[in-house]
Amino acid sequence: MKKFLIIAPAVFMAVACKQKTATYTVQSRTLNEAVYASGEIMPEAYYFLKSNVADLLMKVMVKEGDAVHKNEVMAVLGTPSQLTQEDILHSQVALAGKNAQPGSSSLSELQKRIALAKVQQEQDALNADRYTELAKSQAVSEKDAEQARMQAASSATTYKTLQEQYLTQQHELTEKLLQARQQLAATSQGREGKILKSPVDGYVYKVYLKEGELAQLNDPVLMVGLPGQFKLELLVDERDISKVKIGQKVYFETDVYKGRQFAASVNKIIPLLQKESRSFQVEAAVQDTAQFYPQSSVEANILVREHITALVVPADYLLKGDSVYLQQGSKLHKTAVLTGIRNGSWVEVKSGLKAGDVIAIKE
């Protein structure tokens, strides 16, 4: 846990003068209290595009810094053989669909045979009726009439059988079409997770893998985000999180712009303890418009109290166990103090000293 005192520049100048001597006169100063946080800078909205299975990265269509549009294909996972298999399935679906059509070559031959069988059945039925009537007047023999009726019955059976064959074959071809479509759908669904598309109009901030490398399950392949606006993703110690509120000012530095300080504002506190670091994640909207680089490390101070009047002493004057040498006349007396917030240079004194006391470094 780290807490910082942020003191006005005029105070630093006054103390600097005092630190040239071996004594310091305790007095009240106006200061700010800040909580230390560290983390990284990220786009305001960003996405990691990942593989839903472990697979090879076959093709990357973009490079870092490219502008991309929503739904633009950025990378393809898999192997050429998998693409070939999908092409084959597309062809099989097309062929099965063609064969299942009423006028397809697979069914047209049966349709012709059915048409001929129908004509034959109708002719034989008429012939059987005619022979039956003729047999009544003994114009033909009963045997010939019976044979005509048998021929009509045979033609009717043939016609019916061909119709049933047509329906059976049509059903089989329809089943083959459905199976081909299901197989293609299953393959396409698997392929969907291997075709990585941009979810937004934005920029490619990072390409993590090269073509031919293995993308592990749920490992990022690309990072894409919205341009222009950035945020801080910070970790705050669990002992300090109760002091952090929405809207508090944040001042941060990043190694990319070493020596420059930037401003942000707390806009989100995630109330879930990260057990590994015993800290909470806090997000802050960056107010500056510099060209930041995502995932750059940052160190930040979150202002939790401003314009506090308190007694402060130089950290160099504080002894082990939180005590100081208090000058009383020509003698130095070791005096215990209760300290508050501190950084490397300054320490707040809550009790044990009062304004006007002179403390010293014992030589």
UniProtKB/TrEMBL annotation:
Annotated InterPro entries: Beta-barrel_RND_2
Instruction: Give Gene Ontology CC terms.
Output: efflux pump complex
Q: Report the protein name in the record.
A: CusB-like beta-barrel domain-containing protein
Q: Which Gene3D superfamilies match?
A: 2.40.30.170, 2.40.420.20, 2.40.50.100
Q: Which domain of life is it from?
A: Bacteria
Q: Which GO terms describe its molecular function?
A: efflux transmembrane transporter activity
Give the CusB-like beta-barrel domain ranges.
234-291
